[in-house]
Amino acid sequence: MSSPFKDARGRPLAAVTGLGVVTSLGRGKDENWRKLTSGCSGIRPITRFPTDGLRTTIAGTVDCIELSVQTSATRTMEMAGVAAAEALDEAGLPEADFPGPLFLATPPAEIEWPQRRRIYEAALGSADKGYRRLVAAARAGDFQDIADESQFASAAIYLANRFGTKGLPVSVSTACASGATAIQLGVEAIRRGETTAALCIGTDSSVQLEALVRFSLLSALSTRNDAPQAASRPFSRGRDGFVMAEGAGALVLEDLEAAVGRGAPILAIVRGCGEMADDYHRTRSKPDGSAIIGAIRRAIEDACIAPDDIDYVNAHGTSTPENDKMEYLSLSAVLGDHLQKTPVTSNKSMIGHTLSAAGAIEAVFSVLTIQHGVIPPTINCDDPDPEIPMDVVPGTARAARVRNVLSNSFGFGGQNACLVIGAYDGVK
Amino acid sequence: MKPRDVWITGVGLLSSLGEGNAIHERQMGAGGAPIRLDETSYAPYPVHPLGDVDFSLQIPKKSDQRQMELWQRIGVYASGLALADSGLAHDPDLLGKTNLVVAAGSGERDTAVDAKILESVGSAGETELLAKEVLPTALRPTLFLAQLSNLLAGNISIVHNVTASSRTFMGEEMAGFSAIENAYRRIAAGQGDVFLVGGALNAAREDLLLGYELGKNLWPHPYLPVWSRKVDGGGFIPGSAGAFLVLESREHAEARSRKPYARIRDVLTDCCQRRPGDATRTFETLFSKLNVSEGPLAVMSGASGVEPVTSEELGFLQGLEDKGHQVAIRAHGTRLGHSVEAHFPAGVGLAALALASGQFFAPSDENWVESPLEGELSRVLVTGAGHWRGEGLALLERVE
Asked: Which of A179, A107, A73 is nearest to B170 (CA)?
């Protein structure tokens, strides 16, 4: 006899019992959901640093987090902390004694220019130059504050200490698919029976000068600086690149049986995860879309459902010419005629591309979509690309009964990770 | 469900000792001083650089090589060695089933550009100038891709066509623990059959030295073995290395008639606060969960030389004598240098080579910490201790 707590393959089901989110739209689920379903954009001119002369001067910055030292690293940690605290509160778990591991999607750590300058100038009068001087200054001075936030483990260590997660805190990077991968790691750990709970977070605060210039040099960013709120236009004819953005999304995953046992709210089930690496190019996907197609197929198979059971797609939808075209081709290859009846939207039209955090933030929004029975719109799609004939729910949110969401995440380096998140019907 | 047996069926090593398994076995077997050490280029910091490597042997296309910085070339090269060693290379069906798990930091910055900016642009108005004039002309788009942590994995997929899945773990030494543990657990639980797992480090770079010296983690004196650095406060000597392994379920390996180097019996990790005594206790707790029977125990220690954690690990290892284990400790960092993300995979790889040959490596320290192994080599405990955080243990066994 099959167990109500296991999937069709007999694996423990991973329930979502808590959600938290921070984006350029605001802090917390309520504010985000209200604005997301009203079609608000969080994209604005960058005020954090001077942008004169840059090709792109807009982003979805998170400006509602107060910090004494504003670096990408401190914002990345603090946003993740805010999102995780909200998720733990909803799950009814203590804030400092989480009963399982941390899986964190976070950007690679780096030292920013103001910090590099500070180290350099600590050795005033030195005859050394360049890195020789920097390294000597590091040995002579006290830069523990920079050291503590510029390790690749820094964010995970900070969060593990704050929330009392168990075991080795895991930091993962699959570029712009990282958030989905963090959730996948949690689902797999629960399926293996290693833990009954996992704290999965995606966080990213990369809007700093050099990172902006680097993405600009790759010609990846929108340059619609004069109309920031119209700059992220997934699936539209006039899309010209993504808009960098910041944010964090946190999900508490629990073994369904354990969650029901302790009376936790069951918000949704992460039913399936799929991935496939692309070996074609560092920043472009195979022209036939086979790796993206493979990842989508595997997620649907892993969820033990059929393509026709997908009734909404939370797209990667970055607003780059390449991504949106390939995503449509791949969806049509897997869903076939069913795609015509399936709404496909991009949260990024409103919050921009939150990079390492995107998969987690969009998973949070996917669960909210199921819970509220409302699909947030794709905004700025007033000039739809005729080569992408999809129902993108343009402009205005739509009421809909959503049972299974496919959430896509794709990244540089051939990373493709997809999740299937399903409604929970209670124990039958 | 009973966990499946996890076998090591391929090892790929590239380090200052040279390239390939035979050279690593020979060099580690010989003991003694490191064979390649650069004590001048980054003085006062010694570094173990790579020797000459013909990267085109594993990365045939010059266009691919140009897209990578050295850390990525090291990793792609070592992963190619591991794939060839296990008979996966150039087999599209098997490579399409092979899952990739990489431990990575990030790649080289253009230190010449950074230095020029620091010298020519004063702090007043720095950001305006950087934004307007300097960075847009000085930065190379390809360099950004060479810096991204997950682009080592991306390049391995492109060059070697490993495509089933791809995950990159970060977190210095913890990245290596996460990678080995993740691959091991997925195989044991039937979430995958065959994995390419490992990491790479280019130690000969000033930006890497800066990153670790901010926390005063480097050894700024003439070379000494890992266990001998405590007197001067400890520290690690970075060593360039690429270390990749093919891990495989026993069933999958037998079905394609592959013999294992060794079996991984378990991988256990944790992350303590590092108050005095924490690391020793953490290792003791992890070790007790391994259920290691009494008797001779070979140890491939990933100690970095950073204090006090190196002494704490040694306290744990020497304490095993009281529990009935005759330990024979070898710190591979003494000969290879410390390879951070790649260091735990390197320890597992070296332990696998030793188990397959039946010969443990020669002691190479001056403090009598490392002693000959008494009895037969049938198992190796591999340790990993992050220079800042993270503790890991793997137990490998000989397969008869």
From this structure: A107
Domains of chain B: 6-110+142-255 (3.40.47.10), 262-397 (3.40.47.10)
The CA distance from A215 to A201, in Å, is 24
**What is the separation, in whole angstroms, between the first and last Cα of chain B?**
24
How many helices (DSSP H) and strands (DSSP E) are in chain B? 16, 11
Q: Is position A281 annotated as part of the catalytic site?
A: no
pLDDT for position A428:
60
A225 in Cβ contact with A240 (< 8 Å)? no
Residue B337, token pair as written in the block? 């240098």
Q: Which of residues 47 through 76 in chain B touch A, CB cutoff 8 A?
A: 67
Query: Which contacts qualify for A73-76: CB closer than 8 Å, 24 or more apart?
Result: A73/A109, A73/A149, A73/A150, A73/A154, A73/A155, A73/A205, A74/A149, A75/A205, A75/A246, A76/A106, A76/A107, A76/A155, A76/A203, A76/A204, A76/A205, A76/A248
Is there a contact between B302 and B347 (Cβ–Cβ < 8 Å)?
A: yes
**Which of B128, B165, B273, B275 to mutate to probe the A interface, most A CBs <10 Å?**
B165
The owner of tokens 């619609």 is: A224
Q: What is the pLDDT of residues A337-364, one digit of tens each?
A: 999 999 999 999 999 999 999 999 999 9
> And the tokens for B376?
């037969």
DSSP SS3 for A48: coil
How far apart are the C-alpha atoms of A154 and A161, rounded to whole Å?
11
Q: Which range, of A121-125, A263-267, B9-13, averages the lowest pLDDT?
A: A121-125
Residues of B in contact with A217 (CB under 8 A): 136, 139-141, 144
Min distance B226 CA to chain A CA atoms (Å): 20
Domains, in order of start, for chain A = 14-109+151-422 (3.40.47.10), 115-147 (no CATH)
Task: Find the radius of gyration of the CA atoms of chain A.
Answer: 21
User: Which residues have a Cβ under 8 Å from the Cβ of A100 and sit 6 or more positions away?
Assistant: A165, A166, A189, A195, A196, A197, A198, A199
What is the Cα gyration radius of chain B? Answer: 21
- Give the whole-angstrom CA distance, residue A18 versus residue A250: 8
For residue B157, pLDDT beyond 90: yes
Interface predicted TM-score of the whole assembly (ipTM), two decimals: 0.98
Q: How does A169-184 read in b/e, with b if 16+ C-beta sit within 10 Å?
A: bbbbbbbbbbbbbbbb
User: Running DSSP on this structure, what letter comes out for residue A223?
Assistant: -
pLDDT of residue B185: 98
What CA–CA distances, in Å, run from A279 to A103, B147, B166, B244, B351? 26, 19, 11, 19, 31
Q: Catalytic: which of A40, A273, A316, A418?
A: A316
pLDDT at B88 over 60: yes
Pairwise CB contact (< 8 Å): B144 & A172: no
Residues in chain A: 428
Min Cα–Cα distance to chain B from A395, Å: 35
> Is the pLDDT score of B145 beyond 80?
yes
Question: DSSP labels for A12-47?
Answer: BPEEEEEEEEEETTEESHHHHHHHHHTT----EE--
Q: ∠A322-A327-A328 over CA atoms, to 5°?
A: 105
CB under 8 Å to A90, separation ≥6 — which residues? A17, A18, A19, A20, A252, A265, A267
DSSP B324: T
Exposure of A139 by Cβ count < 10 A (0-12 exposed, 13-18 middle, 19+ buried)? middle
User: CA of A350: how far to CAs of A381, B40, B201, in Å?
Assistant: 11, 54, 39
Question: Longest C-alpha distance within chain B, in Å?
Answer: 68
How many Cβ atoms are within 10 Å of B65's Cβ, its own excluded?
A: 17
Q: What is the pLDDT of residues A162-201, one digit of tens each?
A: 999 999 999 999 999 999 999 999 999 999 999 999 999 9
